[in-house]
Specification:
By secondary structure, this protein is α+β, with helices and mostly antiparallel strands. It contains 29 helices and 20 strands. Helix content is 48%, strand content 15%. The longest helix has 32 residues.
Length: 735
């Protein structure tokens, strides 16, 4: 290995240069004495990290400076945040304590840095360290939203510089980013950061698709720029004539959003027409904002015909995260739909910089949607018994959804996520109303609890003192508040029933002459595959386990106990013990051993796919594709159970199951042509074939056995060549 030569003088010069650039970025928000405070934090960070280097070999101090720069420049945060960004890794990585930070910089800085410091120490093996860390960070959100904003700046810089990391770490961090941090940036109104985080995550989890779309976008760049110039020319002309000061430009859509569209609609890149959006930013006074936006809308729709179903008015009713804009889709000069976004300079700053800009413009007495959202997060965090993983899932679900506006019988406006039901509305009004809800009237018509609400509905809730929350309610509520209240109510009910079960079990064990003690209870729970003694007691009370079952247990008492719950620290030991497979197709672990595994049915990996191993509780190691719909959740919540995996070269004659979705124009003999290509030309076995035909449109889902991705791609190309077939995509199982 080459010696890495360090030029200390050049590095010091670069550090000074980066620090000066940071000060320039902070300039708009600097007050008297701020520069000295930033300098003090910089000197402390420089001293604390002086011996440390990043994976790239660069001095570690480059990272805190870059995080502070993002916080200042791209989010628009002030001095306290810059100080915290410079010091965000000092407590975690050096001997400095929070007390030292508080002495030098005060309580507020110390509290924010505590929120940014990961949890260390022992934790429940059934829980998830990542989920606990995320929950801790959100607990400080109730105190200070800057914790989240600095964390997003930290995550963005880590994602921008991730190419030097090990592949499995790249996958874990990228998955966690797309699963939690991108939705969080979206919810806080940081759209530019959200898009970049999604694109960077995709670059590491699905590099082939990312490169393919990036290359295609590049090929069409000149053609796209000419189209944008032709489109905005006449718009600019009329705006000038009417004396409206505005800048008009085209903005390309992110690679991730293009891929999302291709996937959702099962269409190739060539059929994604809205590869860019036109943005009009008006320079006007606050009192004329609404008038000017609608005036510009009128000018554009006079020039180009609008799609009446595609008008989004977030100027009259801003989104919950403060986002304001007018969106319309119009038919462009070459017969293709173009999205146009109309907003003022103030609205644009809130859209780009989110929360920080929101505070800058906020009137002292207004209670915005963003404040209400933070209040909801506080309420969610107030149920301490909730499992961190459930919390993160519920929280995540409420991050990305668009709002709908619902009215109470008295006309009060309530904002709920899209897809919310009458029961969600009841819990939103008050927990007790939700818990005793038996039905609702939507627009004066009686509906069940599971009725999905539409924008503008007026809802009246009907309650009964005899009603209590039911297990199946969890299947149709979508808000985190409703889920958490139902779960805690069911837990309380379960605990009550389990108390009765405990007494019943004690009597039954006495009659079987089995001693009632903790050790035996754990053995019985393990024998019946219950995760806890409470589950055992509950099932005894419900009559699911009776004396006959307990006799069977007594007979099998000598069965060795199996414990699957010791993870992280024992993964290597477990991997060593697993039996080898007949066909060594996948190598697993840091040293790529041949061990037993199963292929995950949610994504059906085949040789050639980028894969990873996941250590499950009961089913050993499961192999998933890195682009699997469930991968981001697994890696985001259980990073410590992820194992490296790669295909061995000895699987040439082994067949793997995968799915194809075929769409086309229905024609006589089409199925025959498809099966001929698959079975005769490619000699591939078909496991199942389901076909639907509706008004001349043909859709088929086919499960086939192939050897590798090369054979699959070749098969897909040949199927596309059949006359009448318009699309062939690899079938992804739904989440």
């Amino acid at each position: 290995m080459e010696d890495y030569v360090i030029d200390i003088e050049a590095e010091n010069k670069e550090i000074r240069k980066r620090y000066r650039a940071l000060l320039r970025a902070c300039k708009p928000t600097l007050q008297r004495g701020d520069k000295q405070e930033i300098r003090k934090a910089f000197d402390l960070a420089l001293e604390s990290h002086k011996e440390m280097r990043r994976k790239s070999g660069e001095p570690y101090i480059y990272h805190p400076i870059a995080v502070a720069q993002i916080a200042a420049e791209e989010i628009g945060l002030g001095t306290t945040s810059i100080v915290c960004a410079l010091l965000h890794d000092v407590v975690e990585d050096t001997s400095m304590t929070l007390q030292d930070i508080e002495t030098q910089f005060g309580k507020k800085v110390a509290r924010i840095i505590d929120g940014l410091t990961k949890i260390s120490g022992i934790f429940d093996p059934n829980s998830s360290m990542q989920a606990e860390n995320f929950r801790k960070m959100l607990l400080t959100l109730a105190d200070d939203v800057r914790v989240i904003l600095i964390k997003l700046a930290d995550r963005l810089h880590n994602m921008r510089t991730m190419e030097f990391m090990a592949r499995h770490k790249q996958l874990k961090i990228a998955s966690e980013t797309s699963y939690l941090y991108a939705p969080l940036a979206h919810r806080l109104g940081l759209y530019a950061i959200k898009s970049e985080l999604e694109d960077l995550s995709m670059k590491f989890t699905d590099p082939d698709t990312y490169k393919f779309i990036a290359r295609k976008l590049n090929e069409k760049k000149a053609e796209r720029e000419k189209f944008i110039a032709d489109f905005i020319g006449p718009v600019k002309e009329i705006l000038e004539e009417q004396g409206i000061k505005a800048s008009v430009f085209g903005r390309p859509k992110s690679i991730f959003s293009i891929w999302n569209k291709m996937r959702k609609k099962s269409i190739p890149f060539e059929e994604v027409y809205d590869l860019f959006a036109i943005r009009v930013i008006i320079d006007t006074t606050t009192d004329r904002e609404k008038t000017e936006c609608w005036k510009v809308y009128s000018i554009i729709t006079d020039l180009y015909r609008p799609n009446p179903d595609r008008l989004r008015d977030w100027v009259s009713s801003p989104k919950g995260n403060g986002y304001e804009s007018l969106h319309t889709t119009v038919m462009g000069p070459r017969g293709q739909w173009v999205e146009v976004q109309i907003r003022t300079k103030r609205m644009n700053e809130i859209a780009e910089k989110g929360f920080a800009a929101h505070w800058k413009y906020k009137e002292s007495n207004s209670d915005s949607g963003l404040d209400q959202w933070i209040q909801k997060v506080r309420n969610m965090l107030s149920s301490p018994e909730q499992n961190a993983l459930d919390f993160v899932d519920d929280f995540k679900m409420n991050l990305f959804s668009d709002e709908i506006f619902i009215f109470t019988p008295k006309g009060t406006l309530v904002q709920l996520p899209n897809g919310a039901t009458a029961l969600d509305f009841a819990f939103e009004i008050h927990s007790d109303i939700g818990a005793t809800c038996i039905g609702a009237k939507v627009n004066h018509k009686l509906v069940p609890l599971s009725h999905p609400l539409q924008n503008g509905d007026q809802v009246e809730i009907i309650t009964s003192s005899k009603q209590t929350p039911k297990e199946d309610w969890l299947n149709f509520v979508v808000t985190a508040k409703a889920k958490s209240k139902i779960r805690s109510s069911l837990k309380e009910e379960k605990r009550r029933v389990a108390e009765d079960g405990k007494e019943i079990l004690e009597r039954k064990l006495k009659s079987l002459k089995i001693t009632y003690n903790t050790d035996n209870i754990n053995k019985i729970a393990n024998y019946f595959k219950y995760p806890s003694s409470q589950d055992l007691f509950y099932n005894v009370a419900k009559g699911i386990i009776d004396v006959r079952n307990l006799r069977e247990y007594a007979a099998n008492e000598k069965t060795p106990e199996q414990n699957h719950n010791q993870f992280s620290s024992h993964i290597s030991g477990l991997v060593d013990k697993i039996n080898k497979k007949d066909v060594d197709t996948i190598l697993i672990g840091d040293d790529f051993q041949q061990v037993d595994y199963t292929l995950a049915p949610c994504c059906n990996p085949i040789p050639g796919d980028d894969i990873f191993g996941f250590l499950t509780v009961n089913d050993g190691i499961k192999i998933h594709r890195t682009s699997c719909p469930n991968a981001s959740k697994l890696m985001a919540n259980y990073g410590y159970r992820i194992l490296k995996a790669k295909w061995a070269s000895s699987q040439a004659n082994v067949a793997f199951l995968t799915g194809l979705r075929i769409v086309g124009i229905d024609d006589v003999g089409l199925v025959n042509k498809i099966t001929n290509v698959i079975s005769q030309e490619f000699n591939v076995n078909i496991r199942s074939l389901s076909i639907t035909s509706n008004e001349g449109i043909f859709e088929g889902n086919i499960m086939v056995f192939v050897n590798n991705t090369e054979q699959l791609e070749s098969l897909m190309r040949n199927l596309k060549d059949i006359s009448g077939i318009t699309g062939v995509t690899r079938y992804e199982a739904d989440n």
